[in-house]
Amino acid sequence: MEHLISYDLARGLHIIAVIAWISGLLMQPRFYAYITSSTPGGELEQTMLKAAKNLRLIILGPSMVLAWAFGIFLFVTYVTGDWSRPPDVILAGVPHWFWAKLILVLGLSGYHGFLIVEGRRLAKGERPRSERFWRLMSEVPFLVAIAAVLLATLEP
Ligand code: HEM
Deepest of 45, 61, 67, 80, by most Cβ within 10 A of its Cβ? Predict the structure, then answer.
């Protein structure tokens, strides 16, 4: 069957979107750490709040949407393949690594939502979490990304 874009192009675009998404998820908590340690109302706080907001709007939002869009396209077109089969046969044919990866990407998406909520609180002048918390949080997406990439490439 002919598809809108080829498997290899879709994989490439998926990986590009994923790179942008994960970079944003790694940077955003760093900005939050700077905001948390800055003087309230000072120049650093204002600059970092603006940088964090721009990162959410320009990088994080679009790249998450594109990573999901190309991921779903790959799934629907190339992983499950023939949709004329009964639903239970289609489901049974989905490889196990995909379900594990889905849990991880749902986790990353939840973490993304958490960052958005926390960003709005910081913009209101609330600082509910410590600088140390945000420094630790900036490592988490990388660990999840390692697992997601190896699941997709090794297909265990
Ligand atoms: C956002 C939801 C996501 C969905 C629905 C999704 C789904 C998929 C699907 C169906 C494939 C094709 C696999 C194949 O053809 O064997 C794929 C490829 C891939 N995905 Fe994702 N993915 C998502 C997010 C991610 C994330 C967050 C990462 C990395 C951090 C990632 C890394 C990769 C890589 C490296 C490949 C290429 C694997 C290969 O060509 O062997 N994906 N993804």
Answer: 67
Q: Is the dihedral of CA 54, 56, 62, 67 positive or negative?
A: positive
Q: CA 98: distance to chain centroid? A: 16
In angstroms, the first-to-last Cα distance of the chain is 27
Instruction: Dihedral sign for Cα 117, 121, 122, 124, please.
Output: positive
Beta carbons within 8 Å of 92's beta carbon, 6+ residues apart? none
- In contact, 101 and 152? CB cutoff 8 Å: yes
- Tens of pLDDT, residue by residue over 76-91, are 998 887 888 888 888 8
Segment 101-120, tens digit of pLDDT: 999 999 999 999 999 999 99
Whether 64 lines ligand 1, by a CB cut-off of 6 Å, is: no
Task: Using the mean position of ligand 1's atoms as its centre, give its distance from the Cα of residue 152 in Å.
Answer: 6
